[in-house]
Amino acid sequence: MSDKLTLYVCNVDQRRLKAPACRRAQEALRASGHDFEKVAFAKGHPFGLFTKGHRPELKALSGQEQLPVLKLPDGSTVNGAANIAAWAETNPSVPVPHNG
Question: What's the predicted TM-score (pTM) here?
Answer without folding.
Answer: 0.78
